[in-house]
Amino acid sequence: MRIALMVIRKILIVPYIFFRLWLESKRYNGDYTKGFERAKIIARHGIAAGNITLEVYGQENVPKEDGFIYYPNHQGLFDVLTFYVSSPKPFAVVIKKEAKDIILLKQALEATGSLAMDREDIRQSMQVINQVAKEVKEGRNYIIFAEGTRSRNGNKLLDFKGGSFKAAQKAKCPIVPCALIDSFVPFDENSIRKVVVKLIYLPPMLYKEYKDMKSNEIAEEVKRRIEETIEKYGSSN
């Protein structure tokens, strides 16, 4: 119902903004900034039309220099929209292959040079991790959802997979934990009631802080920080 509301309220501009995003996806040449800006515009329109209030905290924690990875908890398709709207830096996304063909999301991913991962194919997964590490070293930013799939337990987290942090270890880059609260509500509830979603950018873990840790230890620490933040900020719905 909420997606339908978004489309109906923006029906006059949906074809135009979709066309511009599609055009950026076809023009993609390695520069993801234009695609990111197009995706940001669409996300802003969608959130404004969907009776959604996005509260963002901790943007000052986002590194000033490019070449870092956001590691948020994962609650659903709405998660990426919160980052498009609020991130002061452009980014690409590592997404599971099952979601790569969803309309609008597909075009946004293509326009930003994002990567799809086949979780059942270890070799392909490692190729993606290595590609992310290479690009982050070159100054690109990424989002990786370390749970591997969305949690279906509200604001409770699944275990974070250690392998997801190998890209950061290889790139020796800052890890930015991010806490999403109630991001599952907009698209999971068959409702158009007003809803508040929160996104908190936590202070980054620099390489010197985690360089002697194993990947599963990094995963546990990032998860712990996000869980503490979710408990602190709580739910508004």
Strand arrangement across the biggest beta sheet: 1-7-6-2-5-3-4
Beta-strand segment tally: 7
Helix content: 40-55%
CATH-defined architecture: 3-Layer(aba) Sandwich
Could you give the distance between the termini?
18 Å
Low-confidence stretches: none
- Round the mean pLDDT to the nearest integer and report it: 91
* CATH topology grouping: Glycerol-3-phosphate (1)-acyltransferase
Q: Given the helix and strand composition, which structural class is it?
A: alpha/beta
Strand percentage lies at 5-15%
Radius of gyration: 17 Å
- How many helices? The count is 10
Main sheet summary: 7 strands, mixed
Summary tags:
10 helices; alpha/beta; 237 residues; Glycerol-3-phosphate (1)-acyltransferase
Explain the overall architecture:
There is one protein chain. This protein has 237 residues and is an alpha/beta fold. It has a single domain, classed as Glycerol-3-phosphate (1)-acyltransferase (3-Layer(aba) Sandwich), CATH 3.40.1130. It contains ten helices and seven strands. Strands 1-7-6-2-5-3-4 form a seven-stranded mixed sheet, with helices on both faces. Helix 1 packs across helix 3, helix 2 packs antiparallel against helix 3 and helix 3 crosses helix 4.
List the helices and strands and how they pair.
Blueprint: H1 2-9, H2 14-27, H3 33-49, E1 52-57, E2 69-72, H4 78-86, E3 92-96, H5 105-111, E4 115-117, H6 122-137, E5 142-144, H7 166-171, E6 175-181, H8 185-188, E7 195-201, H9 207-210, H10 215-233
Parallel strand pairs: 1-7, 2-5, 2-6, 3-4, 3-5
Antiparallel strand pairs: 6-7
Helix pairs in contact: 1-3, 2-3, 2-5, 3-4, 3-5
